[in-house]
Specification:
Radius of gyration: 18 Å
Strand order of the largest sheet: 4-5-6-7
Structural class: alpha/beta
Order of helices and strands: EHEEEHEHEEHHHH
Number of helices: 7
Number of strands: 7
Length: 240
Amino acid sequence: MAFLKYPSPSFRTTQLPTFSLPITASSRISLPTTHSLNSIPFRNWVEDSRAKSFKWVFSGALALSLSLTGMLLFPSMNGGLTVFRSVGSAEAKVGVNKPELLPREFTSVIDVAGFLSEGQEKRLAQEIRDIEKDTGFKLRVLAQNYPDTPGLAIKDFWQVDDRTIVFVADPTFGNILNFNVGASVDLDIPRSFWSRLAGKYGNMFYWKEKGEEASIEAAVMAISNCLREPVGPNNCSEVK
């Protein structure tokens, strides 16, 4: 399952298409009107729609390595994906699938760009383990320079599900912080948190002055603090 200026002056909400690239605006999937909500045909339609939407999320969004300028991806009510794209964002790049760039052993932090030291990777991996143990949410970090990325291959490697946050650090288009957020995470974390996080630690001035690794570490700690806050009307109101 994001690189220009944050926060942007305005946002537009677009439903991602079920298939075909490049990404263009498309109409929302409409619910069938000829079947009742409890009918078998309708349930089959919902399951099929969700399956196709889920497949698209990773064959589209993750094949593009989530490096879509000014874009945050969130699950929509119908099982698809809602896109919050900043005004003036660039066109999506060609999808990538390079499993040969994956590490041989499982790790929650994949740094194909070389932004992080070995010690930094270990600290982030430990923090991510603590997050999962304490909250049940899975944070996964991919540092890349598009198109040098495993892309779609991370879906199976990380077993991405609706409790997963895929954080892609890629400075290609300016803002280095990009997120694909699972449905269960979306229920607990305000969507505005992700744009504020990108605006604070992902902007070009921040990572060029302090380094890409500083942006990555600050973002992971901010996500950790947010996930540990009690769910309520004011949770994650500050990026710490």
